[in-house]
Each structure stands twice: as C-alpha cells, then as structure tokens.
Amino acid sequence: MADTSPLNAQRPRRLRQTSLMMEVGIVIVIALLILFVVPLLLTAFGQEFRINMLGRFMALAIVALGIDLIWGYTGMLSLGHGVFFSLGGYAFAMFLQLQLPEGELPEFFTLYGVTELPFFWQPFHSLPFALAALILIPALVAALLGYLVFRNRIRGVYFSILTQASLIVFFHFFNSQQELINGTNGLKTDTAKIFDVYAGSDQAQSVFYTLTVVGLVLAYGLCRWLTSGRLGKLLIAIRDDESRVRFSGYNPTGYKVLVFAVSAGLAGIAGALYTVQSGIISPKTMDIAFSIEMVIWVAVGGRASLVGAVLGALTVNFAKSILSEQFPEIWLFFQGALFLIVVTVLPGGFVGWLRTQGQDLFRSLIGRRRRLMTYPRLAEDPEVEYERQNLRN
Amino acid sequence: MLTSLFNSFFDGISIGSVLLLSALGLAVVFGLMGVINMAHGELMMLGAYTTFVVQNAFKPLGQPWFGAYIFVALIAAFLVTALLGLVLEKGVIRHLYGRPLETLLATWGVSLILQQFVRSVSWVMMLGLVVFCGFFFGAMTLLSRRSHFQRIRGWAITMLLPLSAGIAWAASSTLGQKYQLAVTKPWFGAQNVDVTAPGWLRGGIRLLGAYQMPYVRLFILSLTIICILGMYVFLQRSVWGLRIRAVTQNRSMSACLGIPTQRVDALTFALGSGLAGIAGCAVSLLGSVGPNTGQNYIVDTFMVVVVGGVGKLVGSIAAAMAIGIANYLIGANALSPLVAWFPPLANLLEFFANSSMAKVLVFALIVTFLQFRPAGMFPQKGRTVDA
Amino acid sequence: MSDKILEIENLTVSFDGFKALNQLNFSMEAGELRVIIGPNGAGKTTFLDVITGKVQPTTGRALFKGKNLRSKSEHRISRLGIGRKFQTPRVYLKLTPRENLDLSCNRHKNVWATLLGRPAQSERRTVAGLLDTIGLATKSDIPAELLSHGEKQRLEIGMLVAQSPDLLLVDEPVAGLTDEETENVGNLLLTLAEDHSIIVIEHDMEFVRQIARQVTVLHQGAVLCEGSMEEVQRNPQVIEVYLGQPEDSDG
C-alpha cells in the first residue's frame, strides 16, 4: 500500500508484523460491517434495493483490484477486461442454465431449433467444473493472449489497442452465435434454480452477497500478497523500465503473463458474482465503454493502491447510479469530465491525493503547520543504526 | 468464379479505402506524438454531422447547387474538426506528452463528452456554453495581466468556475423559459440522421458481369487517393512537412535545431483531426449517422496503425488495404469456392462467413502476423528504437 | 579458448545499410580491465548492445566463455554472467536503493522463485554490505528518484555488482560527476577489477588514465589500435582521429 510513500522507511520486522496484524483486523472488521450492519441500515432507511447494488459494485471492485494489479503496479493498460469478466459470467450462467430436469434443454435452444446440447456445454453440468472454469477459462485466455503479445515485446499503447481489439472480437463472437450461446439476448440466471432455490430469490441473493464480500476480501488478500514481496517490487520495476529488467536477468514476459492471468481470473470471479446478482449476462458487458470504465474506477481511487481501487469502484458506480437516476443526460458529460480531471489534475487518484496534498490541506485546516519534506536524515535514525549492526555482525 | 473473386477484391479495396481514410489522420498523429487519440472516431462523427448541416443548408437552393454541397461539406468538415483538434491539443493533450496511456484515457473522456454533446446540443446549451466560456476565460485573461496572478490563480479558478457556471446556467434557463421548445429542442437528438448523396453520386458503373460499382464508393476511393497524395506532397515538399518529419524522427534534436515542436504538434494534431473530419464526411455517404458512428471505426483504424507500423504512410496504406480485403474476402465467403476440394477448410471458412465473424478471424490473423513482425509491416530501424 | 572470457569475431552490425560495427575483432582475457575509447559514433554503445543481446549481429559472432551469444535474449545473457551499466543511470526510480539492490541480488530469477521465495539472510547481508560500499546506507529507504545523479551512478554500479557477474560492461560511469565522485568511482572499479573482468567505455581521458591498463580504440565500427595508454597515445592514427583534438573530444 504505502510503497510509493517516501516516508515509509523499512521498519524492523516486529513492527511490520504488528502493522500487518492491524491491517488484517481492519479488513475483517470492515467486511463484518458490510455483511451484517450495512444491510440492516439500508433496510431501515427503506433503500433495500441498494443492498443488491452494493453487492454488484463489490463484485466490480474485484475487477478493479485486478486492473490495479496490471495497470497500477505493472503499467499495462488493458482495455479488454470485459472479455474476462464476461467469460466468468457466461461460465457460471451456463451452469445455472443447465439446472433443469433430465433431458431438457435451456429454453432458447428450442427457439433456434437446436435439439442437441453443443459439446462445450456438456461439462457445465457439474458445479466444480463450472467453478473452476469461471476462474481458469479467463485466466488461460489472458495467459495465451498475453504470452503472444508480451513475447514480442509489444507493450504500451499497442497492448492497450490489442486488448481492445480482442474485446471487439469476443463481442462479435458472442453476439452473433445465437445457436451456441443465445447471441445478443444473453443468458438469464435469475429464473434458474440452484440447490432448489431460485437464483433470483432473496435467500439466494443474500448468499451471493456474502460470497461477494468474502470474494472481495480474498481478492484483496491475494493482491496484497502479490504486491508486497519481491514480486511486487519487480512489477514496479517492470512498469518503470522494462528493458532494464532484462539486463538484471529477469524475463519480464513470464511476470507479465502471470499478473495478466491473475487479473483476468479475478475479473472472471467478479463476472460470475455480478451476473448472479444482476440476473443476466449478455454481450453488453463486452462493450468498449464498460471496459474503459473499469480503468477509471482505479484511476479515481488511486493507481498502485489496492484500497484506492476498491474505493474508486464503489464511489464511481454509486455516483453513476445516482446521477443517471436523477439526470440521465449528465452522466456521460460527468464521466468524460472525470476522465479528464483524474488524468490531468489528480494523476494519483484520491488515495494519491490523500497521501500528499490532502494531508497538507488537513493540517492547515486544523491550524497546524505544513509538513516540510526534506532529505531524510536517516543516519541519525536509531532504527537504521540498529539494523545495520544486526545485519553486519 | 474468377469474376466473383475479382469483384470481392474490388469491394475489399473500397472498404479498405474507407478504413485508410479514417486511419490516415490517426497514423500521422500517432507517428508524430505517440498519442493514441480515442476521440478520433468522434471527430469523424462530427465531420459527418457537419456534412448533415451543410446539406440541410443547401437544400433550399434547389438542384444544381445542391449537387455541389458535398464539396463545401468536405471543406467545412475539415475546418470544424481541425479547429476542434487544435483546441483539444492546446487544452488537454499538450499537458500529457510522454504519458501515452494517460492521453488515451483523457481522449476517451473527450469522446464521451462529444457523443453526449451531439445528442443534447441545443440553442440553449450553445448559449450557456458561450456565456460560460466568455465569462470564465475573459476573467482569467483579465486577471492574468495582474502581476500576482500566479499566486491567486488557484483561488481565481475556484471563484470563477462556479460563478460563470451559475451565470451561464441562469442565462440559458431564462432563455429556455421564454422561448420554450424553439430553443430547448436538441439540434440532432439521439436518433440517427441521414445524409443524402447528391444526385450525381447515385447509381454506379457496371464492371464485369452483373456486378455494379456504386459511384459513392468510387468517390470515396478517389477522395482517399487525393488525401494521400495531398499528405504526401505536404509532408515531402512543404516547410512544415519537413518539420513534421523531423520531429517524428527525433523530437529533442529537432527542438535543439530551433524547430518549434509545440507548434508542429498543434499543427499535426489539427491536420490529423481535419482528416478525421473528411473521413466522417465520406462515411456519411455510406449510411445513416448517429452519435455512436465513431465507435464503429476506432478499433479497425487502430488495427491499421498497429499492423502498418509507425511513421510511414506506405505502411498505413498497405495495412488498410490488407485488412479491408481480408475482411471482405472472409466475410463474403469468397474464398471457400477455391478450397472446395478440402471440405474441412471450406467449412471453417463458412463458419466465419459473416461480417461479425470475419472480424474474429482477421484479428486472429493480425495477432499471428505480429508474431513475425511485432513492429508492423514497415518498422523503424536503428539504435533509437526501444532505447 | 577457455581463458578468454570474451571473443568477438568479424562482427558486423548494419542498420539499413549503415554499418555501426564493421568486421570487428576483439578478445579479452579473464580478469582483465579493458577501457574502450573512440570518438562519437565509433560504435562503442552498439558494441555493448551486441554483447548484451539487445542488438543481433548481422554477421560474425560473439563468444562469452566459449558460448555463442547469438539469438540469446538479454535476460539469458545476463544470467550467464554479463552485467551492464547504462550510459545514463537506469535505476528503478520508484523503488528504494535497498529494493533496487535486492532485485539484482536475487539468485533465482524465474517467476515462481521470485513469488514464493523470501530473501535469504546471505542476500540481505550482501545488500547491506553493498549499500555501505556505494555510500548509500543512510539513503537506503527513500525512493531512488530522490537521489542525486552521482548517487544514481553509484547505485547502478552497486546493482551491477549485486548481480555478481563475471564480466562487467560499464558505459560512461563518470559522465556528469564531480572530480571527487569520479575518483571514488575509479577506485570502486579498480577494487572490482580484482575479481571481475571489466570493460569500461569512457570519454573522460583523466579518468581513463587513472584506471586504464589496456586500452582499445574504436573508430568507424572497427578496432583502430590496442595497447597500453602510452602506446595508444603515441599512435599517429589515434592522434589523427581522436586525441588530435583533445579539447572537444569529451562530448
């Protein structure tokens, strides 16, 4: 989290462990609050529909974590995460569609005169397969695409454009294959039955809500683990100077493929969680605009900050739902302005602002003097002295 | 069979020429500044809407004059989009040089704003916008004459922004109440609008057999050729073209030699945007025009830039033609008769034989191509690349 | 064969017909400190580019410890034991000097080892020792972007050493440094030369005199002459192309 803060001196291990425990505690408390208190509060204020909304937006926050991993840390801007999101969503929706009495086909097949289940639907009868598929299929697709691209040292805007093109390609594929996956109409999930409960029922929805919270916490933990150690430093190094990394003896291709695949897997999970809570998955989620929106969540929250990514996804989406309820015309203007402002005025996003100017502003508001940044005089820092003596003996 | 292949080849060229025309501006801008302009498609869309406006202005003039509107529209589209490009460069892109990914996002923001703008622009909104700009920038210019401007700049902006926004909103809402629908009605609305081609562009000439080549397509083809020739002459023969080429090859060296790189950037961007306007004008002849028109073109045009390589016109030409022809050959299933002796391949081609699925296969081909030529067809060589 | 650490045979590199290197032959013993000089455009940096795998030779070959380096990618060559310092210091600006060194120091550079492995105690000790050697111990935990130019140069040399390569390629290590810093870097290189083979490319003649034992002069992509500093300085050809105008030669 605090990787980019200049003041974060490396503390002795004991101190670091305490702060790690603190972080775990805080995350768990927040998760419990969201699980048990927030729904009660929203119900009390008569805003019950917002619970479902919060659930969906937390699913989107998982995507944001993945985007932050590849863009904020590794510097690869993917404009095609809608593909992985949708693949995850479709994988789980296919499982739900198949929860039918023996011998029946999902309804839409009969409309197009298909009498036999296409071969690639067969394995989706099994829940474990579907669960594995909704992570692994996006991850493998990303790994393959990433390998083919990174291997040739295609990067920067070229990578962005290629991911966007792949998005369009997947869109066209899903959109035009009516006999295989119901084309434009997509797959409905809320009328499907899972464990003898309708997926759209309150009971199932509250389970999905809980799963989303758990998923978000786990995703946060995973990203935190990936970015904290040596790998995280290497990702930042790749972002700053990829060709230099090669001369240090690392092959960036493998690392980039790994984080791209992890990020896609997260998007897949998010897609599945989002789909069951919104009741449908359709090629619309592979719209160009939606994938770029994912990037702006991260940009608003703060790049290279996992908390920022989550906060950004939640705030932008709530702002979107509120603004487009009240003034549908304004939303696009607002979103466009958001892109411009975040990129030009707030390149560090909200968290980045908090770490720098925000602190100063706060200090001046409560009447204290501004913090002065000078060259740190670490030579006189007892902690550093201690460490040096311990390591050299 | 040969004629049908020849015909689809020609169709491919005409699709490729549209692609090339729209990619031309993008390629020049990307080659020079490394900027991917996501709003390029929206600039095309504005060019198309400009054509629509010009056409409506010519309608009352009657037949002989109406036929010539397209030439006026071409010029108008070029000017409008070039001007907008200039504003965009000065207002946004200039501050983001050296950060290509951020530029990409910022221009995407611009494209969203432009899309919504054509949907909801009305006299009221125009007035509000003019009043706002007048007050805000007028006051800023006045203030900037003061000696302590730098110190009060932040405060000035925070004060002036809501103030001028308030005045603009008040002015436009009074106007809106007074004249009601006459001024609040959107100019274009969210629906698509139609541009009718002038009479002399309807119909077509017969080529081989029953095949007909529409005049509109021929017009676009010749427009593309004229644009490319114009670009070529401008880049190779004029002073500014020389400067543009110099900056494309080595920005900092050019700056040292006294080339005003900032003005070169502004000029190039305006030029690229103007070309987008012309492309938009051409596109409007092919079908109806809506706020989302631009979106349909951006990905294909980006592919042209990626496949063609940076900094050479010939790369863009070859790539546009290759992608256009490939798209058409696959989409129209023109190749399967040739491979009929090998059913699996023919079946495979059959599967991809519609315009959507053709895109899938073409993308696969592009990724395969990039495995062999990662820097495109005509890469730049030398030590400076990938420093 | 085996005591030669680097052998270059008939190496030609051409960019679109322009020959940056032209039939270059070069060899050096293990444990040697070699300085390469030459006027601008002589092909010095391209020479390093070929050895490190950044540029592929058009014809000819480069052998490192008898192994052909052709079509090996940069990271493989680096793992073979060739380290490179760049003309302008290229350190990871957002990381601290400690993290910079730690990344270079890592012995297992594949994905899984980096992900799952923890820095070994010995590696931490190496890093701490190196921070002392390059004089950055007190600034080990601030982002490298806050370091001065000279400190970045030293940090990059430190990163090179942390890789513990057998052959160090050092491109203009003292460009833009003060006299005192230059001498420090010179001493650092001389210390390193005790157990590494080093190739130094430099324009600064004072500095070359301080460290040089064997000097190779490149001109127009080929070796012009080779020998000790005195021999090279007396060579009429060298005087003509290079040392003849000492005043404007340190570009």
Given the C-alpha coordinates, what overall shape of chain A results?
Answer: globular
Q: How many individual helices of chain C?
A: 10
> How many individual domains of chain A?
1
Order of helices and strands of chain C: EEEHEEHEHHHHEHEHEEHH
CATH architecture tag of the domain at 4-87 and 167-248 in chain C: 3-Layer(aba) Sandwich
Q: Quote the distance from N terminus to C terminus of chain C.
A: 37 Å
Content-based structural category of chain A: mainly alpha
Say how many strands of chain A there are: 4
Strand order, main sheet of chain C: write it out: 6-7-8-3-9-10
CATH first level of the domain at 4-87 and 167-248 in chain C: Alpha Beta
Largest sheet of chain C: 6 strands, mixed
Mass-distribution shape of chain C: globular
Structure notes:
The complex is a heterotrimer of chains A (393), B (387) and C (251). Chain A is an all-alpha fold. Helix content of chain A is 70%, strand content 2%. Chain B is built from 16 helices and 2 strands. In chain B, strands 1-2 form a two-stranded antiparallel ribbon. In chain B, a hairpin with a 5-residue loop joins β1 (204-206) and β2 (212-214). By secondary structure, chain C is an alpha/beta fold. Chain C has a domain at 4-87 and 167-248: Rossmann fold (3-Layer(aba) Sandwich). Chain C contains 10 helices and 10 strands. In chain C, a hairpin with a 2-residue loop joins β4 and β5. Chains in contact: A-B, A-C, B-C. The A-B interface holds A 71, 75, 77, 145, 148-149, 151-154, 156-158, 160-162, 164-166, 168-169, 172-173, 175-176, 243, 288-289, 292, 295-296, 299, 329, 332-333, 335-340, 342-344, 347 and B 30, 34, 36, 92, 95-96, 100-106, 108-113, 115-117, 119-120, 295, 298-299, 302-303, 305-306, 354, 356-357, 359-360, 363-364, 366-367, 370-371, 374, 386-387.
